Amino acid sequence: MKKIYSLVFLTSIFFTAQAQVFPKGELEFLTAQWKGERFADGRPKVSDALIERAKKIGIEEAWQILHNEGYNNQYEGNWKMVHDDVPVVGRAVTARYSPTRPDIEALIKERGKKEGRKGNTNAWTIEVLQKGDVYVAEAFGKIAQGTLIGDNLGTSIFNKTGNGVIFDGSARDLSGLEAIKGFNAYVRDFHPSFLEEVVLMSLNGPIRIGGAIVMPGDVVLSEREGVLFIPAHLAEKVIATAEFISVRDRFSKDVLKSGKYNAGQIDNQWTEEIKTSFLDWVKAHPNEQNITKEALEKFLEKRTW
């Protein structure tokens, strides 16, 4: 009897997790390493200040730092974009879509209607978006009839978030999306069709984007080559380390050009003389990030990049 009860309980948990709104308690459990502020639905809330700093770091440095931490499934490439020079950086709001079937879609839409939701299920995620969010959707790579947004929904998304989208699916109305200044979409392709045979199965739960796993609240970092999803609890470490690498690289180029040090000296463990030169260089460049001797030693301690 006990075994039967456990099976029923686990089945119940499984189907709850597949509902449109992912359970808050489960989301908090899966993001337990995040110790900061959360949104009302349990999503980690990386600070606005940290998001602004993330806009200035490079994806290669951030990827390497995550790799060193053992996070090897956070990057996905092979995208088409509305603009190739507009990065999408912010906190992830996640949605998982599935091929539909009439009985399931009817139930989902009926429940959504009772909850006050309007329109097709691909519009429901837009309702929860906030300023700085990035709408990230798993849509099983569907192109024809997989167009999650056109220019109308794109306008709505940008008005709410000031940001773009990342879709493992497609979009339509490319010319209309191009006209939304500041907006960008990373998609698998563009297609003129309307969305069909697709239904929302999970909102703000774990999703898979190609070879990457994405959690709600992850920091989305994009460049032309691809998209990186930084776990919220690692965001400060990744961003601070990437900032240091950027400053270090500018210092290295300067001293290599001047001939003060050679490549062998710069690319090896730094001597006390080079460390002092670096700190003096930072002080002489007021626009650079201020780095203390203690912080420098900490950054250099486990240098694997």
Structural overview:
This protein has helices at 2-17, 24-30, 48-54, 59-68, 102-114, 124-128, 151-161, 174-178, 235-258, 263-266, 272-283, 293-301; strands at 75-77, 80-81, 90-99, 133-138, 147-149, 165-168, 170-171, 185-187, 189-190, 198-203, 207-209, 212-214, 219-223, 226-230. The chain is an alpha/beta fold. The protein folds into two domains: 48-233, Ribonuclease E inhibitor RraA/RraA-like (Glucose Oxidase, domain 1, 3-Layer(bba) Sandwich); 236-301, no CATH class. The strands form three sheets. Strands 1, 2, 3, 4, 6, 8, 10, 13 and 14 form a nine-stranded mixed sheet that branches. A three-stranded parallel sheet has the order 5-7-9. Helix 4 (59-68) crosses helix 9 (235-258). It is elongated and about 70 Å long. The N and C termini lie far apart (55 Å).
CATH class of the largest domain: Alpha Beta
Specify the CATH homologous superfamily of the largest domain. Ribonuclease E inhibitor RraA/RraA-like
Round the mean pLDDT to the nearest integer and report it. 91
Give the SSE string.
HHHHEEEHHEEHEEHEEEEEEEHHHH
- Total of helices: 12
Q: What is the gyration radius calculated from CA atoms?
A: 22 Å
> What fraction of residues sit in β-strands?
15-25%
Number of strands: 14
Measured between the Cα atoms of the first and last residue, the distance is 55 Å
By secondary-structure content and strand pairing, the structural class works out as alpha/beta
> Main sheet, how many strands, which sense, barrel?
9 strands, mixed
CATH domain topology of the largest domain: Glucose Oxidase, domain 1
Helix content: 40-55%
Tally of discrete structural domains: 2
Uncertain runs with pLDDT below 50, 5 residues or more? 1-19
**What would the principal axes of the Cα set say about the shape?**
elongated
CATH structural architecture of the largest domain = 3-Layer(bba) Sandwich
